[in-house]
Write a structure and sequence with these properties.
Radius of gyration: 27 Å
CATH class of the largest domain: Mainly Alpha
Distance between the termini: 104 Å
CATH architecture of the largest domain: Alpha Horseshoe
Number of domains: 2
Strand content: under 5%
CATH superfamily of the largest domain: Leucine-rich Repeat Variant
Helix content: 55-70%
Structural class: mainly alpha
Order of helices and strands: HHHHHHHHHHHHHHHH
Number of strands: 0
Shape: elongated
């Protein structure tokens, strides 16, 4: 009887241990972190495009997280361009330097919004050369070199409807103009393709390539005032006094915002002129 009692006691203790482990496992499974990952994974593998897009975009909040980075990298191969663009954006936001090669590959995507998102993230990750090449081609509609990164999309870049889509989905987040934001916003909502070209001009401000300076000067004569204003502001930020005469020509621009931006740019470039001379 004593042996039987001991066996029963041991069994009871063993069962209690199993129950305790199961209870702990259950607690782990129901932890907030586990629930959070379950939500993101469900979204990332959803059959609904908008759910995948939003779920992947949210991964940008997770820096130094290999799991999040892997999910975003996999989403770069999603059949839907909006999901691929969200993935490219998330990788930049999470500062995933390890993903630079995959983002560079995304620059040859067949959809320009994906290319723009990848270029923006590469710029955030300090791979500015690749990004500048994309912005140059977007602004000018031509290649910066014989190895243009978006050569396959040049026809798209000349398509107003396609550019309008990019202007709405990508441009509105990056309109950096001082004092002309509301007009730019209204123009975008009219499905005008030019704001995204204006964004490209602004993002080229610090590209040291001389061909970019020439492209910006050409853009100061663009038919759309937003592009002209953006080009003038970009030239001002470059701080190259040799471009001052080109900016001064916009003093008579038919749009007052361009005239005011030109005046401010000339003052800024004039202040930079003595510094350049001293260096020489």
């Amino acid at each position: 009887m004593r042996r039987l009692s001991k066996v029963i006691s041991c069994l009871m203790l063993s069962c209690a241990g199993v129950v305790s482990l199961l209870a702990q496992a259950s607690t782990d499974i129901e932890s907030p972190k586990h629930k959070a990952w379950d939500i993101l994974l469900t979204a990332a593998f959803s059959k609904i495009t908008v759910e995948r897009t939003n779920g992947i975009r949210a991964l940008g909040l997770l820096r130094d997280n290999p799991r999040a980075r892997e999910l975003a990298e996999n989403a770069l191969k999603d059949p839907k361009p909006e999901v691929r663009a969200a993935a490219a954006t998330a990788l930049g936001q999470m500062h995933a330097a390890e993903s630079i090669p995959k983002l560079e590959k995304a620059l040859s995507d067949i959809k320009v919004p994906v290319v723009m998102a990848a270029a923006q993230s590469l710029r955030q990750l300090k791979d500015e050369g690749s990004a500048y090449a994309v912005y140059y081609e977007l602004l000018t509609g031509g290649r910066k070199s014989s190895e243009g990164l978006v050569a396959q999309q040049l026809d798209t870049l000349k398509n107003p409807r396609e550019l309008a889509k990019i202007g709405f989905s990508e441009g509105i987040g990056y309109i950096p103009f001082a004092g002309i934001g509301w007009d730019a916003y209204r123009t975008i909502h009219k499905k005008d393709p030019n704001p995204v070209r204006a964004v490209a001009a602004t993002l080229l401000a610090h590209d040291p390539d001389p061909s970019t300076a020439k492209a910006l000067v050409n853009a100061t004569r663009d038919k759309d005032w937003i592009v002209r204003a953006a080009a003038v502001e970009a030239i001002a930020q470059r701080g190259d006094p040799s471009l001052l005469p080109k900016v001064q020509l916009r003093f008579t621009d038919r749009n007052p915002k361009v005239r005011y931006s030109s005046a401010a740019a000339v003052i800024r470039l004039s202040a930079a002129e003595p510094t350049k001379t001293a260096r020489r």
